[in-house]
Specification:
The protein is an alpha/beta fold. Helices cover about 25% and strands about 20% of the residues. Strand 7, helix 5 and strand 8 form a beta-alpha-beta unit. Bound molecules: arginine.
Length: about 300
């Protein structure tokens, strides 16, 4: 459901979020093996000056520690082979938007990547996942949509926070709402280092999220303020350079946090979260960290 009038004032937005149907957490982690990961083009500001700079052995160690962290929390991880044709395919958040359809069946919306350097990843990944039996839905339009990089689920609700401005086109959200049956609230991103919503908004539970005001236009920030009674701002340096908001809290208890973000760690611990720091320096050279290295499948 996409109802522009629901976003126009705080009370309507609160009701739109609160009355969204419940949604069971997605528990199945999808990752792409990083064997072919490297910075080979520049499509976001973090990649500038980084061509060829990835230490692939170190990247493999960082990626493996993330995989182990999910497994030890009890989340099964499926790994798909990468491809030398697609150095960014390791960012598995982007190619697909998994959801549960009206009949309760797991399904995938196929992304349409904004950057030509990544467009072939979608068909490659969809083909690799065919044996798992998900039904797959391409967008009718050819507008850009970058999967769960810009579609961030509200914990416990069938509602998507939809980022747009740099990669996903705002108009894609209406179609996503139609296909998935989920409610969608669009958010306009304005900071070029925070070009995906998943580097700007990190929900913890239905009432709590970490975020950074400078990533959003005034109206979008007001939507977040209205929807999350506990909206906690992290410092600019940790949000923009430290990828602090690209951590992931998969169980409302544990926060997998990119290392080197002491203030975010402190804030998370003060909420009672168990914080596990994971280094992601190599992937940050490409503009991504923990959240974008995986997708969650129902
Ligand atoms: N180099 C990749 C790109 O610019 C990084 C993607 C990070 N993904 C994310 N969901 N934030 O497309």
């Amino acid at each position: 459901m996409y109802t522009a009038s629901a976003f126009s004032d705080p009370a309507s937005l609160q009701a739109f979020v609160r009355d969204a149907p419940p949604r069971a957490p997605f528990r199945h982690v999808l990752m792409v093996d990083p064997a072919h990961f490297q910075v080979r083009h520049v499509i976001n500001p973090h990649m500038e000056g980084m061509i060829g700079a990835v230490d692939q052995e170190r990247a493999y160690d960082e990626w493996s520690a993330i995989k182990r962290a999910y497994e030890s929390l009890g989340f099964p991880v499926t790994v798909v082979e990468g491809s030398d044709d697609w150095p960014d395919i390791v960012f598995a958040a982007n190619q697909l938007l998994p959801y549960v359809d009206a009949d309760g069946k797991p399904a995938l919306v196929l992304s349409h990547m904004a950057k030509v350097e990544r467009q072939g990843e979608v068909a490659y990944l969809a083909e690799s996942l065919r044996p798992l039996g998900y039904s797959m839905h391409p967008l009718r339009t050819v507008l850009p949509l970058e999967g769960t990089g810009d579609a961030v689920w509200h914990p416990g609700r069938n509602l998507i926070w939809g980022g747009h401005g740099f990669r996903t086109d705002e108009s894609s959200w209406e179609e996503v709402a139609e296909i998935t049956g989920a409610r969608v609230v669009p958010l306009s991103l304005i900071h070029e280092h925070m070009y995906h919503l998943d580097v700007a908004l990190m929900p913890i539970d239905g009432n709590t999220a970490f975020s950074y005001r400078g990533a959003f236009d005034v109206e979008s920030w007001a939507r977040l303020v209205a929807a999350f009674p506990r909206l906690i701002e992290v410092p600019a340096s940790e949000a923009v350079e430290g990828f602090a908001l690209n951590g992931h809290c998969p169980d409302e208890k544990t926060l997998l946090l990119p290392s080197g973000n002491p203030e975010t760690r402190r804030l998370a611990e003060s909420l009672g979260l168990d914080v596990q720091e994971l280094p992601t320096r190599e992937f940050q050279k490409s503009g991504g960290s923990i959240f974008c290295l995986k997708n969650m499948l129902p």
